[in-house]
Amino acid sequence: MTPLYFGNSGRPLFGVFHPPWPGAPRARGRSAVLLCYPGPQEYNMTHWAFRKLSAALARDGAPVLRFDYTGTGDSSGSMVDGDLDTWVADIRTAHEELRDQSGIDHVSIVAMRLGAALAARACAEGLEVRDLVLWEPVVSGARYLDELESLDRREQLRLLHPANDRSRDELAGHRLTPTQRDAIARIDLRQLGRPSARRVSIFVSEEKPLFVALREALRVAGADSALHVVTEHAAVTNAGAREAALLSNKILGAMAAELANGTPE
Amino acid sequence: MTERALSFGADGRLVGILTEPDVATPRVEGAPAALLWNVGVNHHIGPHRSFVDLARSLAAAGITSLRFDLSGLGDSSVRRDAVPEAVRATDDLNEAAAVLEKRTGIRTLLPVGFCSSIDSAHAFALKDPRVVGACFLEGYAYRTRGFYAHYPMRLLSRERWRRFAAERLPGIDREATDEGRGAIGGVEHEKAALREAIYVRDYPEPEKLRADYEAMVARGVRMLFVYTGGDSSFNHVGQFDEMLGTSAIRASGNVELEYYPDVDHTFFRVAHRERVITRIVSWAKTSFVGGA
Protein backbone atom coordinates (compact mmCIF):
# COMPACT_ATOMS: atom_id res chain seq x y z
CA MET A 1 0.00 0.00 0.00
CA THR A 2 1.13 3.54 -0.69
CA PRO A 3 0.32 6.48 1.56
CA LEU A 4 0.10 9.73 -0.37
CA TYR A 5 -1.08 13.32 -0.39
CA PHE A 6 -3.03 14.42 -3.46
CA GLY A 7 -5.33 17.08 -4.82
CA ASN A 8 -4.94 20.82 -4.41
CA SER A 9 -1.42 21.51 -3.09
CA GLY A 10 -2.86 24.31 -0.98
CA ARG A 11 -5.11 21.93 0.91
CA PRO A 12 -3.92 18.39 0.16
CA LEU A 13 -5.89 15.29 1.02
CA PHE A 14 -4.34 12.20 2.57
CA GLY A 15 -5.06 8.79 1.20
CA VAL A 16 -3.76 5.24 1.07
CA PHE A 17 -3.66 3.51 -2.30
CA HIS A 18 -3.84 -0.29 -2.31
CA PRO A 19 -2.77 -1.80 -5.64
CA PRO A 20 -4.19 -5.22 -6.54
CA TRP A 21 -2.28 -7.97 -4.82
CA PRO A 22 0.35 -9.72 -6.92
CA GLY A 23 -1.28 -12.84 -8.25
CA ALA A 24 -4.80 -11.52 -7.71
CA PRO A 25 -7.29 -12.45 -10.42
CA ARG A 26 -7.22 -9.88 -13.22
CA ALA A 27 -10.86 -9.71 -14.10
CA ARG A 28 -11.46 -7.84 -17.32
CA GLY A 29 -13.56 -4.78 -16.74
CA ARG A 30 -12.84 -4.74 -13.03
CA SER A 31 -13.47 -1.35 -11.51
CA ALA A 32 -11.23 0.45 -9.06
CA VAL A 33 -12.84 1.06 -5.67
CA LEU A 34 -12.96 4.32 -3.76
CA LEU A 35 -13.68 4.02 -0.03
CA CYS A 36 -15.34 6.91 1.77
CA TYR A 37 -15.05 7.03 5.56
CA PRO A 38 -17.88 8.04 7.91
CA GLY A 39 -17.81 11.42 9.63
CA PRO A 40 -15.03 12.34 12.06
CA GLN A 41 -16.98 11.25 15.14
CA GLU A 42 -17.12 7.68 13.83
CA TYR A 43 -13.81 7.65 11.97
CA ASN A 44 -11.45 6.21 14.58
CA MET A 45 -13.69 3.27 15.41
CA THR A 46 -14.06 2.28 11.76
CA HIS A 47 -10.52 2.84 10.47
CA TRP A 48 -9.50 -0.78 11.01
CA ALA A 49 -12.59 -2.09 9.21
CA PHE A 50 -11.69 0.12 6.23
CA ARG A 51 -8.19 -1.24 6.17
CA LYS A 52 -9.52 -4.80 6.23
CA LEU A 53 -11.98 -4.03 3.44
CA SER A 54 -9.18 -2.46 1.38
CA ALA A 55 -7.10 -5.60 1.75
CA ALA A 56 -10.04 -7.86 0.83
CA LEU A 57 -10.76 -5.86 -2.34
CA ALA A 58 -7.08 -5.72 -3.31
CA ARG A 59 -6.87 -9.49 -2.86
CA ASP A 60 -9.79 -9.76 -5.27
CA GLY A 61 -7.83 -7.76 -7.82
CA ALA A 62 -9.27 -4.27 -7.35
CA PRO A 63 -7.13 -1.17 -6.90
CA VAL A 64 -8.43 0.71 -3.86
CA LEU A 65 -8.08 4.24 -2.54
CA ARG A 66 -9.28 5.27 0.90
CA PHE A 67 -8.86 8.89 1.88
CA ASP A 68 -9.55 11.48 4.58
CA TYR A 69 -11.89 14.41 3.98
CA THR A 70 -10.62 17.97 4.46
CA GLY A 71 -10.11 18.67 8.16
CA THR A 72 -10.24 14.99 9.15
CA GLY A 73 -7.61 12.29 9.63
CA ASP A 74 -4.28 13.28 8.11
CA SER A 75 -5.74 15.61 5.50
CA SER A 76 -5.04 19.30 5.70
CA GLY A 77 -7.12 21.72 7.69
CA SER A 78 -9.15 21.47 10.83
CA MET A 79 -12.72 20.34 11.34
CA VAL A 80 -14.06 23.85 10.87
CA ASP A 81 -12.47 23.95 7.40
CA GLY A 82 -14.66 21.10 6.24
CA ASP A 83 -18.30 21.24 5.28
CA LEU A 84 -20.54 19.00 3.25
CA ASP A 85 -19.87 20.85 -0.02
CA THR A 86 -16.11 20.57 0.54
CA TRP A 87 -16.35 16.89 1.41
CA VAL A 88 -18.44 16.11 -1.68
CA ALA A 89 -15.81 17.93 -3.75
CA ASP A 90 -13.15 15.85 -1.96
CA ILE A 91 -14.88 12.68 -3.19
CA ARG A 92 -14.70 13.95 -6.75
CA THR A 93 -11.01 14.76 -6.29
CA ALA A 94 -10.30 11.32 -4.82
CA HIS A 95 -12.26 9.67 -7.64
CA GLU A 96 -9.97 11.39 -10.14
CA GLU A 97 -6.87 10.47 -8.15
CA LEU A 98 -7.88 6.81 -8.10
CA ARG A 99 -8.33 6.81 -11.85
CA ASP A 100 -4.85 8.29 -12.23
CA GLN A 101 -3.24 5.92 -9.75
CA SER A 102 -4.87 2.78 -11.12
CA GLY A 103 -5.08 3.60 -14.80
CA ILE A 104 -8.66 2.32 -14.68
CA ASP A 105 -11.54 4.50 -15.85
CA HIS A 106 -14.35 2.65 -14.07
CA VAL A 107 -14.66 3.42 -10.38
CA SER A 108 -17.02 1.98 -7.79
CA ILE A 109 -17.59 3.54 -4.39
CA VAL A 110 -18.10 1.98 -0.97
CA ALA A 111 -19.11 4.66 1.48
CA MET A 112 -20.13 4.42 5.12
CA ARG A 113 -22.57 6.39 7.29
CA LEU A 114 -22.13 10.13 6.60
CA GLY A 115 -19.71 9.17 3.83
CA ALA A 116 -22.56 7.29 2.15
CA ALA A 117 -24.70 10.43 2.18
CA LEU A 118 -21.82 12.43 0.70
CA ALA A 119 -21.05 9.86 -1.99
CA ALA A 120 -24.72 9.52 -2.93
CA ARG A 121 -24.93 13.28 -3.31
CA ALA A 122 -21.77 13.37 -5.44
CA CYS A 123 -23.28 10.72 -7.71
CA ALA A 124 -26.66 12.47 -7.83
CA GLU A 125 -24.78 15.59 -8.92
CA GLY A 126 -23.20 13.76 -11.82
CA LEU A 127 -20.19 11.81 -10.59
CA GLU A 128 -20.38 8.61 -12.58
CA VAL A 129 -19.56 5.34 -10.88
CA ARG A 130 -20.19 1.71 -11.67
CA ASP A 131 -21.34 0.42 -8.28
CA LEU A 132 -22.40 2.64 -5.41
CA VAL A 133 -22.34 0.72 -2.13
CA LEU A 134 -23.98 2.54 0.76
CA TRP A 135 -22.82 0.94 4.03
CA GLU A 136 -25.03 1.72 7.03
CA PRO A 137 -25.93 4.98 5.28
CA VAL A 138 -27.05 8.14 7.00
CA VAL A 139 -30.47 8.47 5.38
CA SER A 140 -31.74 11.30 7.55
CA GLY A 141 -29.32 13.98 8.72
CA ALA A 142 -31.61 14.93 11.59
CA ARG A 143 -31.67 11.32 12.78
CA TYR A 144 -27.90 11.13 12.43
CA LEU A 145 -27.49 14.19 14.64
CA ASP A 146 -29.74 12.53 17.21
CA GLU A 147 -27.45 9.52 17.10
CA LEU A 148 -24.37 11.67 17.57
CA GLU A 149 -26.09 13.39 20.49
CA SER A 150 -26.72 9.95 21.95
CA LEU A 151 -23.08 9.02 21.44
CA ASP A 152 -22.10 12.26 23.11
CA ARG A 153 -24.41 11.59 26.05
CA ARG A 154 -23.04 8.11 26.49
CA GLU A 155 -19.46 9.40 26.46
CA GLN A 156 -20.50 12.04 28.95
CA LEU A 157 -21.88 9.26 31.11
CA ARG A 158 -18.52 7.56 31.05
CA LEU A 159 -16.73 10.81 31.83
CA LEU A 160 -16.50 12.23 35.28
CA HIS A 161 -16.47 15.78 34.08
CA PRO A 162 -19.31 16.26 31.67
CA ALA A 163 -19.41 19.31 29.52
CA ASN A 164 -22.34 21.06 31.08
CA ASP A 165 -20.93 24.27 29.70
CA ARG A 166 -20.24 22.62 26.37
CA SER A 167 -20.49 24.87 23.44
CA ARG A 168 -22.86 23.79 20.72
CA ASP A 169 -19.86 24.05 18.43
CA GLU A 170 -18.77 20.63 19.68
CA LEU A 171 -20.35 17.22 19.36
CA ALA A 172 -19.06 13.76 20.28
CA GLY A 173 -15.50 14.93 20.79
CA HIS A 174 -15.16 17.05 17.65
CA ARG A 175 -15.95 20.57 16.62
CA LEU A 176 -19.17 21.01 14.73
CA THR A 177 -20.19 24.53 13.80
CA PRO A 178 -23.84 25.57 13.67
CA THR A 179 -23.49 25.89 9.89
CA GLN A 180 -22.17 22.33 9.62
CA ARG A 181 -24.91 21.11 11.92
CA ASP A 182 -27.62 22.81 9.86
CA ALA A 183 -26.24 21.35 6.64
CA ILE A 184 -26.22 17.85 8.12
CA ALA A 185 -29.75 18.29 9.43
CA ARG A 186 -30.95 18.93 5.89
CA ILE A 187 -29.67 15.60 4.55
CA ASP A 188 -32.44 13.34 3.30
CA LEU A 189 -31.22 10.66 0.92
CA ARG A 190 -34.82 9.75 0.06
CA GLN A 191 -35.13 13.10 -1.73
CA LEU A 192 -31.84 12.87 -3.59
CA GLY A 193 -32.99 11.48 -6.89
CA ARG A 194 -31.13 9.00 -9.05
CA PRO A 195 -27.39 8.63 -8.53
CA SER A 196 -25.23 8.16 -11.64
CA ALA A 197 -24.47 4.56 -10.79
CA ARG A 198 -25.14 1.36 -12.66
CA ARG A 199 -26.26 -0.22 -9.42
CA VAL A 200 -26.87 0.99 -5.87
CA SER A 201 -26.43 -1.55 -3.08
CA ILE A 202 -27.34 -0.77 0.51
CA PHE A 203 -25.55 -2.92 3.09
CA VAL A 204 -26.78 -2.82 6.66
CA SER A 205 -26.51 -5.07 9.68
CA GLU A 206 -30.11 -4.53 10.75
CA GLU A 207 -33.17 -3.77 8.69
CA LYS A 208 -34.74 -0.47 9.70
CA PRO A 209 -37.62 1.46 8.15
CA LEU A 210 -35.31 4.22 6.94
CA PHE A 211 -33.22 1.80 4.91
CA VAL A 212 -36.28 0.23 3.34
CA ALA A 213 -37.58 3.71 2.53
CA LEU A 214 -34.27 4.61 0.92
CA ARG A 215 -34.32 1.53 -1.30
CA GLU A 216 -37.87 2.34 -2.31
CA ALA A 217 -37.00 5.98 -3.04
CA LEU A 218 -34.07 4.88 -5.20
CA ARG A 219 -36.28 2.43 -7.05
CA VAL A 220 -38.90 5.11 -7.70
CA ALA A 221 -36.13 7.39 -8.97
CA GLY A 222 -35.18 4.71 -11.47
CA ALA A 223 -32.06 3.31 -9.84
CA ASP A 224 -31.23 -0.39 -9.83
CA SER A 225 -31.10 -0.76 -6.08
CA ALA A 226 -31.00 -3.55 -3.52
CA LEU A 227 -31.01 -3.74 0.25
CA HIS A 228 -28.72 -6.36 1.78
CA VAL A 229 -29.13 -7.15 5.45
CA VAL A 230 -26.02 -8.86 6.79
CA THR A 231 -26.52 -9.65 10.44
CA GLU A 232 -23.45 -8.97 12.50
CA HIS A 233 -22.79 -9.79 16.09
CA ALA A 234 -22.88 -6.04 16.67
CA ALA A 235 -23.59 -3.15 14.38
CA VAL A 236 -20.71 -0.77 13.84
CA THR A 237 -22.94 2.01 15.06
CA ASN A 238 -23.45 0.18 18.32
CA ALA A 239 -20.53 1.79 20.05
CA GLY A 240 -21.23 -0.27 23.14
CA ALA A 241 -19.80 -3.22 21.27
CA ARG A 242 -17.22 -1.56 19.09
CA GLU A 243 -14.64 -4.27 19.51
CA ALA A 244 -17.00 -6.95 18.19
CA ALA A 245 -17.93 -4.77 15.22
CA LEU A 246 -14.31 -4.07 14.39
CA LEU A 247 -13.46 -7.74 14.43
CA SER A 248 -16.37 -8.83 12.28
CA ASN A 249 -15.65 -9.77 8.67
CA LYS A 250 -19.11 -10.75 7.54
CA ILE A 251 -20.39 -7.50 6.08
CA LEU A 252 -16.96 -6.67 4.65
CA GLY A 253 -16.89 -10.00 2.84
CA ALA A 254 -20.44 -9.52 1.58
CA MET A 255 -19.64 -6.10 0.11
CA ALA A 256 -16.42 -7.35 -1.51
CA ALA A 257 -18.33 -10.27 -3.02
CA GLU A 258 -21.03 -7.95 -4.35
CA LEU A 259 -18.43 -5.79 -6.10
CA ALA A 260 -16.65 -8.83 -7.55
CA ASN A 261 -19.95 -10.36 -8.72
CA GLY A 262 -20.86 -7.19 -10.51
CA THR A 263 -17.75 -7.24 -12.66
CA PRO A 264 -18.70 -7.63 -16.31
CA GLU A 265 -16.84 -10.36 -18.15
CA MET B 1 4.18 23.59 8.07
CA THR B 2 4.58 20.81 5.57
CA GLU B 3 3.40 17.22 5.79
CA ARG B 4 4.72 14.25 3.87
CA ALA B 5 3.39 10.72 3.80
CA LEU B 6 6.13 8.14 4.25
CA SER B 7 6.52 4.41 3.85
CA PHE B 8 9.61 3.38 5.72
CA GLY B 9 11.38 0.57 7.49
CA ALA B 10 13.44 -2.26 6.06
CA ASP B 11 10.57 -3.60 3.99
CA GLY B 12 8.57 -0.39 3.75
CA ARG B 13 5.93 -1.81 6.05
CA LEU B 14 5.61 1.24 8.30
CA VAL B 15 3.47 4.25 7.43
CA GLY B 16 3.73 7.69 8.95
CA ILE B 17 3.39 11.41 8.43
CA LEU B 18 6.42 13.66 8.72
CA THR B 19 5.38 17.15 9.84
CA GLU B 20 8.00 19.86 9.50
CA PRO B 21 8.20 23.57 10.10
CA ASP B 22 8.41 25.59 6.90
CA VAL B 23 9.82 28.95 5.89
CA ALA B 24 7.16 30.77 7.87
CA THR B 25 8.29 29.07 11.07
CA PRO B 26 11.80 27.77 10.50
CA ARG B 27 13.02 24.65 12.20
CA VAL B 28 14.77 25.23 15.49
CA GLU B 29 18.23 23.77 15.12
CA GLY B 30 19.10 21.43 17.93
CA ALA B 31 15.51 20.70 18.87
CA PRO B 32 14.60 16.99 18.97
CA ALA B 33 11.97 15.48 16.71
CA ALA B 34 8.82 14.22 18.39
CA LEU B 35 7.70 10.63 17.83
CA LEU B 36 3.99 9.81 18.12
CA TRP B 37 2.49 6.36 17.63
CA ASN B 38 -0.53 4.21 18.41
CA VAL B 39 -2.55 4.64 21.57
CA GLY B 40 -4.30 1.30 21.96
CA VAL B 41 -5.97 0.47 18.65
CA ASN B 42 -6.20 4.10 17.58
CA HIS B 43 -4.17 4.66 14.46
CA HIS B 44 -1.52 7.34 14.21
CA ILE B 45 -3.86 10.35 14.23
CA GLY B 46 -4.36 9.70 17.95
CA PRO B 47 -7.55 9.78 20.02
CA HIS B 48 -9.91 12.41 18.59
CA ARG B 49 -7.19 13.40 16.08
CA SER B 50 -5.07 14.78 18.92
CA PHE B 51 -1.72 13.79 17.39
CA VAL B 52 -2.46 15.67 14.18
CA ASP B 53 -3.19 18.81 16.17
CA LEU B 54 -0.11 18.26 18.35
CA ALA B 55 2.17 17.67 15.36
CA ARG B 56 0.96 20.83 13.64
CA SER B 57 1.30 22.90 16.82
CA LEU B 58 4.84 21.60 17.34
CA ALA B 59 5.71 22.48 13.75
CA ALA B 60 4.43 26.00 14.34
CA ALA B 61 6.94 26.18 17.20
CA GLY B 62 9.77 24.96 14.95
CA ILE B 63 9.72 21.31 16.03
CA THR B 64 9.55 18.38 13.60
CA SER B 65 7.54 15.25 14.31
CA LEU B 66 6.75 11.85 12.89
CA ARG B 67 3.43 10.23 13.74
CA PHE B 68 3.29 6.65 12.59
CA ASP B 69 1.74 3.23 13.06
CA LEU B 70 3.56 0.33 14.64
CA SER B 71 3.73 -2.92 12.66
CA GLY B 72 0.31 -4.41 12.14
CA LEU B 73 -1.60 -1.40 13.45
CA GLY B 74 -3.30 1.47 11.66
CA ASP B 75 -1.91 1.77 8.14
CA SER B 76 1.30 -0.21 8.76
CA SER B 77 1.73 -3.78 7.57
CA VAL B 78 2.25 -6.78 9.77
CA ARG B 79 5.80 -7.83 10.50
CA ARG B 80 6.37 -11.32 9.14
CA ASP B 81 8.79 -12.66 11.72
CA ALA B 82 7.66 -13.66 15.20
CA VAL B 83 9.06 -11.34 17.84
CA PRO B 84 7.56 -10.23 21.14
CA GLU B 85 5.42 -7.08 21.03
CA ALA B 86 7.86 -5.05 23.11
CA VAL B 87 10.76 -5.90 20.80
CA ARG B 88 8.64 -5.12 17.78
CA ALA B 89 7.75 -1.70 19.15
CA THR B 90 11.38 -0.84 19.90
CA ASP B 91 12.43 -2.01 16.44
CA ASP B 92 9.70 0.12 14.87
CA LEU B 93 10.79 3.14 16.91
CA ASN B 94 14.35 2.61 15.70
CA GLU B 95 13.08 2.50 12.12
CA ALA B 96 11.20 5.75 12.75
CA ALA B 97 14.33 7.37 14.18
CA ALA B 98 16.31 6.21 11.16
CA VAL B 99 13.90 7.68 8.62
CA LEU B 100 13.75 10.92 10.59
CA GLU B 101 17.51 11.26 10.46
CA LYS B 102 17.61 10.33 6.79
CA ARG B 103 14.90 12.82 5.81
CA THR B 104 15.71 15.70 8.17
CA GLY B 105 19.16 15.11 9.66
CA ILE B 106 17.66 15.30 13.16
CA ARG B 107 19.33 12.82 15.51
CA THR B 108 17.73 13.64 18.86
CA LEU B 109 14.29 12.42 19.83
CA LEU B 110 11.28 13.27 21.94
CA PRO B 111 8.91 10.28 22.29
CA VAL B 112 5.35 11.03 23.39
CA GLY B 113 3.71 8.14 25.24
CA PHE B 114 -0.01 8.20 25.95
CA CYS B 115 -1.77 5.54 28.04
CA SER B 116 -0.86 2.14 26.58
CA SER B 117 1.98 3.54 24.48
CA ILE B 118 3.68 4.56 27.73
CA ASP B 119 5.20 1.10 27.87
CA SER B 120 7.13 1.43 24.61
CA ALA B 121 7.86 5.13 25.20
CA HIS B 122 9.34 4.40 28.59
CA ALA B 123 11.47 1.50 27.37
CA PHE B 124 12.72 3.50 24.40
CA ALA B 125 13.47 6.64 26.40
CA LEU B 126 15.33 4.62 29.00
CA LYS B 127 17.59 2.78 26.59
CA ASP B 128 18.15 5.06 23.65
CA PRO B 129 20.75 7.82 24.08
CA ARG B 130 19.18 9.80 21.23
CA VAL B 131 16.22 10.56 23.49
CA VAL B 132 16.69 13.98 25.08
CA GLY B 133 13.09 14.56 26.10
CA ALA B 134 10.00 12.48 26.79
CA CYS B 135 6.38 13.27 27.40
CA PHE B 136 4.23 10.82 29.34
CA LEU B 137 0.47 11.40 29.13
CA GLU B 138 -1.38 9.32 31.70
CA GLY B 139 1.82 7.50 32.57
CA TYR B 140 2.55 4.95 35.25
CA ALA B 141 0.77 5.58 38.53
CA TYR B 142 0.70 3.67 41.79
CA ARG B 143 -1.84 4.08 44.51
CA THR B 144 -0.17 5.66 47.49
CA ARG B 145 -1.35 6.46 50.99
CA GLY B 146 -2.07 9.94 49.69
CA PHE B 147 -4.24 8.45 46.96
CA TYR B 148 -6.37 6.68 49.55
CA ALA B 149 -6.44 9.78 51.72
CA HIS B 150 -7.92 11.66 48.77
CA TYR B 151 -10.19 8.79 47.81
CA PRO B 152 -13.11 9.76 50.13
CA MET B 153 -13.29 13.02 48.20
CA ARG B 154 -15.01 10.96 45.54
CA LEU B 155 -18.04 10.84 47.79
CA LEU B 156 -18.27 14.59 47.49
CA SER B 157 -18.09 14.47 43.73
CA ARG B 158 -21.44 15.37 42.26
CA GLU B 159 -20.36 13.87 38.95
CA ARG B 160 -19.55 10.48 40.41
CA TRP B 161 -22.97 10.38 42.08
CA ARG B 162 -24.59 11.48 38.84
CA ARG B 163 -22.88 8.67 37.00
CA PHE B 164 -23.66 6.17 39.73
CA ALA B 165 -27.33 7.05 39.44
CA ALA B 166 -27.32 7.11 35.66
CA GLU B 167 -25.87 3.64 35.44
CA ARG B 168 -28.60 2.27 37.66
CA LEU B 169 -31.67 4.09 36.45
CA PRO B 170 -33.59 2.28 33.75
CA GLY B 171 -34.52 4.32 30.71
CA ILE B 172 -31.52 6.59 30.84
CA ASP B 173 -31.48 6.44 27.07
CA ARG B 174 -35.22 6.93 26.77
CA GLU B 175 -34.96 10.14 24.84
CA ALA B 176 -33.00 8.51 22.05
CA THR B 177 -34.67 7.66 18.78
CA ASP B 178 -35.11 4.10 17.55
CA GLU B 179 -31.92 4.35 15.55
CA GLY B 180 -30.30 6.18 18.40
CA ARG B 181 -31.27 3.43 20.79
CA GLY B 182 -29.54 0.98 18.53
CA ALA B 183 -26.52 3.23 18.43
CA ILE B 184 -26.41 3.62 22.16
CA GLY B 185 -26.59 -0.02 23.03
CA GLY B 186 -27.44 0.89 26.60
CA VAL B 187 -25.43 1.18 29.74
CA GLU B 188 -25.14 -2.58 30.07
CA HIS B 189 -23.50 -2.77 26.67
CA GLU B 190 -21.16 -0.04 27.69
CA LYS B 191 -20.21 -1.79 30.89
CA ALA B 192 -19.65 -5.01 28.98
CA ALA B 193 -17.43 -3.18 26.49
CA LEU B 194 -15.43 -1.72 29.33
CA ARG B 195 -14.99 -5.16 30.86
CA GLU B 196 -13.84 -6.51 27.51
CA ALA B 197 -11.47 -3.61 27.07
CA ILE B 198 -9.50 -4.51 30.18
CA TYR B 199 -6.17 -6.00 29.36
CA VAL B 200 -3.09 -6.78 31.31
CA ARG B 201 -0.05 -4.52 31.39
CA ASP B 202 3.09 -5.17 33.35
CA TYR B 203 3.91 -2.05 35.27
CA PRO B 204 7.47 -1.76 36.48
CA GLU B 205 7.85 -2.07 40.24
CA PRO B 206 8.01 1.35 41.91
CA GLU B 207 11.67 0.88 42.82
CA LYS B 208 12.50 -0.01 39.23
CA LEU B 209 10.51 2.96 37.95
CA ARG B 210 12.33 5.33 40.29
CA ALA B 211 15.69 3.94 39.16
CA ASP B 212 14.65 4.30 35.51
CA TYR B 213 13.62 7.94 35.96
CA GLU B 214 16.82 8.67 37.89
CA ALA B 215 18.85 7.17 35.08
CA MET B 216 17.04 9.36 32.54
CA VAL B 217 17.46 12.46 34.67
CA ALA B 218 21.16 11.71 35.08
CA ARG B 219 21.39 11.49 31.30
CA GLY B 220 19.83 14.94 31.04
CA VAL B 221 16.51 13.77 29.60
CA ARG B 222 13.79 16.35 30.15
CA MET B 223 10.42 14.91 31.03
CA LEU B 224 6.85 16.14 31.14
CA PHE B 225 4.24 14.09 32.96
CA VAL B 226 0.55 14.84 32.51
CA TYR B 227 -2.09 13.06 34.57
CA THR B 228 -5.85 13.52 34.46
CA GLY B 229 -8.59 13.12 37.00
CA GLY B 230 -10.50 10.54 35.03
CA ASP B 231 -10.86 6.97 36.20
CA SER B 232 -7.20 6.57 36.94
CA SER B 233 -4.94 5.62 39.80
CA PHE B 234 -3.78 9.19 40.10
CA ASN B 235 -5.89 11.67 42.05
CA HIS B 236 -3.74 14.51 43.35
CA VAL B 237 -0.64 16.34 42.25
CA GLY B 238 1.41 15.30 45.26
CA GLN B 239 1.02 11.66 44.34
CA PHE B 240 3.92 11.77 41.91
CA ASP B 241 6.40 12.49 44.69
CA GLU B 242 4.67 9.98 46.97
CA MET B 243 5.07 7.30 44.30
CA LEU B 244 8.72 7.89 43.75
CA GLY B 245 9.83 9.02 47.18
CA THR B 246 12.17 11.87 47.82
CA SER B 247 14.76 11.62 45.15
CA ALA B 248 16.87 13.54 42.75
CA ILE B 249 14.17 13.23 40.12
CA ARG B 250 12.12 16.30 40.95
CA ALA B 251 15.07 18.21 42.37
CA SER B 252 16.87 17.91 39.06
CA GLY B 253 14.69 20.52 37.44
CA ASN B 254 14.39 18.22 34.43
CA VAL B 255 10.92 17.01 35.33
CA GLU B 256 7.66 18.90 34.97
CA LEU B 257 4.34 17.65 36.20
CA GLU B 258 0.80 18.62 35.34
CA TYR B 259 -2.39 17.29 36.88
CA TYR B 260 -5.73 18.14 35.29
CA PRO B 261 -8.46 17.06 37.74
CA ASP B 262 -11.26 18.12 35.40
CA VAL B 263 -9.97 16.30 32.32
CA ASP B 264 -10.77 12.77 31.27
CA HIS B 265 -8.53 10.01 30.11
CA THR B 266 -8.83 10.42 26.34
CA PHE B 267 -9.15 14.22 26.36
CA PHE B 268 -12.61 13.85 24.87
CA ARG B 269 -13.43 17.54 24.94
CA VAL B 270 -11.87 19.89 22.40
CA ALA B 271 -10.89 22.43 25.07
CA HIS B 272 -9.07 19.74 27.04
CA ARG B 273 -7.06 18.69 24.02
CA GLU B 274 -6.18 22.29 23.30
CA ARG B 275 -5.04 22.71 26.90
CA VAL B 276 -2.72 19.72 26.92
CA ILE B 277 -1.32 20.49 23.46
CA THR B 278 -0.57 24.05 24.52
CA ARG B 279 1.16 22.69 27.62
CA ILE B 280 3.29 20.21 25.68
CA VAL B 281 4.33 22.78 23.09
CA SER B 282 5.14 25.32 25.80
CA TRP B 283 7.25 22.73 27.63
CA ALA B 284 9.03 21.72 24.44
CA LYS B 285 9.81 25.34 23.60
CA THR B 286 11.12 26.03 27.09
CA SER B 287 13.14 22.83 27.14
CA PHE B 288 14.54 22.71 23.65
CA VAL B 289 13.96 25.96 21.83
CA GLY B 290 15.25 28.39 24.38
CA GLY B 291 12.18 29.96 25.90
CA ALA B 292 8.43 29.72 25.57
Can you put this structure into words, describing what you see?
The complex is a heterodimer of chains A (265) and B (292). In chain A, the strands form two sheets. Chain A has an eight-stranded mixed beta sheet, sandwiched between helices. Chain A has a two-stranded antiparallel sheet with strand order 7-8. Chain A has one domain: Alpha/Beta hydrolase fold, catalytic domain (Rossmann fold, 3-Layer(aba) Sandwich), CATH 3.40.50.1820. Helix content of chain A is 40%, strand content 19%. The two termini of chain A are 27 Å apart. In chain A, α2 (84-102) crosses α3 (114-124) and α4 packs across α5 (178-185). With 265 residues, chain A is α/β, with parallel strands linked by helices. Mean pLDDT of chain A is 89; it is low at 239-243. The longest helix of chain A is centred in the N-terminal third of the chain and has 20 residues, at 40-59. In chain A, α3 (114-124) links the parallel β5 (107-112) and β6 (129-135). The radius of gyration of chain A is 18 Å and the shape is globular. Chain B has 292 residues and is of the alpha/beta class. Chain B folds into two domains: 2-142 and 205-289, Alpha/Beta hydrolase fold, catalytic domain (Rossmann fold, 3-Layer(aba) Sandwich); 152-202, no CATH class. In chain B, 41% of the residues lie in helices and 16% in strands. Chain B has eleven helices and eight strands. Chain B has helices spanning 50-60, 85-104, 118-127, 145-150, 158-168, 178-184, 186-197, 206-218, 239-244, 248-251, 270-289, and strands spanning 2-8, 14-20, 33-36, 65-68, 109-114, 133-137, 222-228, 255-260. Chain B has an eight-stranded mixed beta sheet, with helices on both faces. In chain B, α1 packs parallel to α11 and α2 (85-104) packs across α3. Chain B starts with a strand and ends with a helix. At the A-B interface, β1, α1, α4, β8 and α7 of A face β1, α5, α6 and α7 of B.
